[in-house]
Amino acid sequence: MNILTFDTEEQLNEAGAGVLSGMVQMNPSAILGLATGGTPIGIYEQLVQTYKRGLVSFNKVTTFNLDEYVGITPEHHQSYSYYMRQHLFNQVDINIEQAYVPCGTATDLEEECVRYDRLIENTGQIDIQLLGLGHNGHIGFNEPSHALLSGTHIVELAEATKTANARYFSAEEEVPQKAITMGVGMILKAKNILLVVKGEDKAEIVKRALTGPISTNCPASLLQTHPHLTVLLDRAAGSLL
Ligand code: PGA
After folding, report:
1. What residues of the chain score a pLDDT lower than 70?
2. Residue 225 and residue 148 in contact, taking contact as beta carbons nearer than 8 Å
3. pLDDT at 171 (0 to 100)
4. What is the pLDDT of residue 207?
5. How many degrees, rounded to 5, is the angle at CA 67 between CA 64 and CA 69?
6. 58 alpha carbon to ligand 1 midpoint, in Å?
7. What is the number of other CB atoms lying within 10 angstroms of the CB of residue 148?
8. In whole angstroms, what is the distance from residue 37 CA to residue 108 CA?
9. pLDDT at residue 172, as a whole number
């Protein structure tokens, strides 16, 4: 595990974007696993700048997003599909046909899970999976549980997650109850994992995830078993390590 701690958010974002763009510079057909949430926004901004400066092209890249809310359409401004178009896809030369986000409005959600896993498996191993970290230790929407599923599946969102994400909706009741998420098995299959965490409010869970016991009660703790895990932290998030 390689842990890098940065003094400023700007440095952290530059480092994160540097890892992702470096991957694509070395392998223009790289397969990227992408994440949403507040944490990666600055990284995507930097990535767009790198693209605009002519230093990287995404036109051969394939991307797979980790998750999506169930029941809201890709056009809904809080869908993760919308988020990705807003923060990255519409601002770079990516082929949108190769930028996959699970569909949370599929008529058969179980079938959508199978389709998504098959799509990833048929495309190839994800070169690098970007991850944020939930306050409860979730990765993707794999919430703490006595057991975790390996493949893409439907989850009931934890209360802590709905509360954390309520800031994006006009009321907490509007936060979807369910989501579709890549499972931890699929996440751990990536060649490299880039976990990014910011803020003092995540310091405790960073400590638990990276130094505590490996347990499904803290899904991010499973990342300790990955041979190529890089963790980018700001000083506040890393303050208890
Ligand atoms: P955040 O979410 O980046 O909005 O804090 C991270 C997560 O829940 O995985």
Report:
1. none
2. no
3. 87
4. 98
5. 140
6. 25
7. 19
8. 26
9. 86
Alpha carbon nearest to ligand 1 atom 8, residue:
134
Atom 2 (ligand 1) nearest CA: 37
Pocket test for ligand 1, best of 9, 12, 36, 39 (most atoms within 8 A of CB): 39
Q: How far, in Å, is the centroid of ligand 1 from the Cα of 140? A: 9
Closest CA to 23 of 189, 223, 193: 193
User: 37, 26 in Cβ contact below 8 A?
Assistant: no
Residue among 13, 66, 68, 133 to mutate when testing ligand 1 (max atoms within 8 A of CB): 133
- pLDDT, residue 52, reads 98
Strands 192-197 and 229-234: parallel
Question: Which is it for strands 178-181 and 153-156: parallel, antiparallel or unpaired?
Answer: antiparallel
- Shortest-distance Cα residue to atom 7 of ligand 1: 134
Domains and CATH numbers, the chain: 2-234 (3.40.50.1360)
Q: Whose CA is closest to 64, among 41, 81, 52, 43?
A: 81
For residues 14 and 12, give the distance between their C-alpha atoms in angstroms, rounded to a whole number.
5
Query: Global pTM?
Result: 0.96
Q: List, by residue number, the catalytic residues.
A: 67, 136, 138, 143
Give ligand 1 pocket residues (Cβ under 6 A).
Answer: 37-39, 132-134
Q: Residue 37 CA: which ligand 1 atom is closest?
A: 4
